[in-house]
Amino acid sequence: MKINKALNLVIPIESDDGGTIYVHSTSISRAVFEQFFVVISKAFSQIYNEGLGVTAGPRIAAMMVRKVAEDMGVKDDVEKGLINEMKRLTNVVAPGEHGWETLPLDEAVRTGRISADEMSEVENALAFFSLASAMHRKAEKEAILRGAVSLWGGQITSLNSTEWLASLPTLTVTAPSGVTSPASSVPS
User: N or C: which end of the chain has fewer CB within 10 A?
Assistant: First the structure.
């Protein structure tokens, strides 16, 4: 499949009960990049200048964005604008009563579908994805992002969250019926 210009991120998260939920995120817009380009470019440069790159970058990118913003005296603006925009562009796909359900990231956190530790991982991965998407040239962006997300089990897709959800296998949640099988009369 050829990826179109809209590169979206999908991150699987293994839940405590052994199931998997998915985080689907879209890149920030050109307008948001232009509004925060200094913070984005400085955080991106810091990650690479410190030798963190695609291995450690996804674990610390949101923290680096916040540190750069604080050093520049624009922490509140960046938190309300850039960080919240990354979260707004993110949905969680999780098993629900009637199969797969999509909910906004903030709701998934509020309802406990994503723990604080998982949210930290997600937020840093989203920030790295946003920085890399914004800063790499169009010709190299897809290869860089594919390589980066493969290190943390994610994927890059051109599908929006609704289309991506439709591509998942059908999930039916079954409840125990309470009926038990009769005991076998065959000796074991």
Answer: C
Phi, psi of 8 (to 5 degrees): -120, 155
Domain layout of the chain by residue ranges: 8-167
The two tokens of residue 188 are 């074991």
Tokens 């690479």, residue located: 48
Inter-helix orientation angle 116-135/138-151, to 10°: 160
In the 8-state DSSP scheme, what is residue 47? H
pLDDT digits (tens, 9 = 90+) for 21-37: 999 999 999 999 999 99
For residue 141, is pLDDT > 50?
yes
pLDDT digits over 165-187, tens only?
A: 888 887 555 555 555 545 544 44
Identify the three-state secondary structure at position 50: coil
Closest CA to 61 of 88, 31, 40: 40
In the structure encoding, which two tokens stand for residue 25, read together?
């995120």
What's the confidence (pLDDT) of residue 45? 94
Pull the structure tokens for residue 164. Answer: 């991506």
For the chain, give the longest Cα–Cα distance.
Answer: 77
From the list 4, 46, 52, 63, the residue with the least C-alpha distance to 151 is 52
Residue-level length of the chain: 188
Q: Which of these, 38, 37, 43, lies nearest to 64 by C-alpha position? A: 43
